Amino acid sequence: MNFLQHIGHYVLKFFKSVGALVLFTFTALSHCLRPPFYPRQILRQMIEIGYFSLPVVGLTTVFAGMVLALQSYTGFSRFSAEGAIANVVIISITRELGPVLAGLMVTGRIGASMAAELGTMRVTEQVDALTTLSTNPFKYLIAPRLIAGVLMLPFLVFIGDIIGVFGGYLVAVYQLGFNASNYIQSSWEAMVAMDVISGLVKATVFGFIISLMGCYHGYTSKGGAQGVGKATTDSVVSASILILCFNFILTVLFFEK
After folding, report:
1. What is the pTM of this model?
2. CA-only gyration radius of the chain, Å
3. Is residue 236 part of a domain?
4. Nearest to 73 by CA among 64, 82, 61
């Protein structure tokens, strides 16, 4: 009976957490769509999420494109199909690697930052102080981060796609000996609008997930410094898992026949 009691306890705890997250999500969305807005806070978060995340996203995607070109050459050379490397690089980067890698890197950088910042404000009672000053915490703290995340992740992914394809070009032309004009022509012919659009849609969803998880775990944290650390860890882990899950779901919706 004790064993069953423990199972029931964890099941109820799980559904309680899911219910709290759903209520938090709907509350945050309602505040994102209704005035008043705080443009200065939104712009600050857009700069933090977008501009300051460009270096890490760019480095990640350029090396991903390079490795993808090398690995594709190693595999395709066995079947004398080296000409398909440009197609594989551009399809893989725009559909999958660009959105997923950018989402995971921004999760580690921004999701943890949001959770730590909001968690510190919660345990030091700064959130309660905002309420005392007649400022809605959801309007001032949560909504700007969600709006900025949804707007800036597609921008980061678009730049990351370009840099990743350029990384594949560098390896193919300067290390593998491909003709530059032929490689560019093959890449241009392989590029399909739906591949890029699907990647940007994924980026929009991932941006919402990253901001939501960071805000939720930070806003609901408790227990002092230890609680803030737990909120930061939970934010990164939950956002990473949800990104991978929704990546599969969106891939099925876009490309299943």
Report:
1. 0.90
2. 21
3. yes
4. 82
* DSSP sequence for 215-236: HHHHHT--SHHHHHHHHHHHHH
Quick one: 226 exposed, middle or buried, by C-beta within 10 A (0-12, 13-18, 19+)? exposed
Residue 37 lies in a domain: no
Residue 172 to residues 80, 163, 179, 246, Cα–Cα distance (Å): 15, 14, 8, 32
256: left (phi over 0), alpha (psi -120 to 50) or beta: beta
* Contact yes or no for 58/158 (Cβ under 8 A): no
Q: How many CB atoms lie within 10 A of CB 51?
A: 12
d(CA 155, CA 203): 9
- Of 33, 246, 229, 18, whose CA–CA distance to 115 is shortest? 229
Among 236, 254, 257, CA closest to 116: 236
Number of domains in the chain: 1
Domain holding 227, by residue range, is 45-255
What is the residue-level pLDDT of the chain in tens, covering all 257 positions? 677 787 888 888 888 888 888 999 999 898 888 888 888 999 999 999 988 999 999 999 999 999 998 888 887 777 777 778 888 889 889 988 999 999 999 999 898 899 999 988 888 888 888 888 888 888 888 999 999 999 999 999 999 999 999 999 999 888 888 888 888 888 888 888 888 899 999 999 999 999 999 999 988 888 778 888 888 999 999 999 999 999 999 999 887 75
Residue 15 covered by a domain: no
Asked, for residue 80, whether it belongs to a domain, the answer is yes
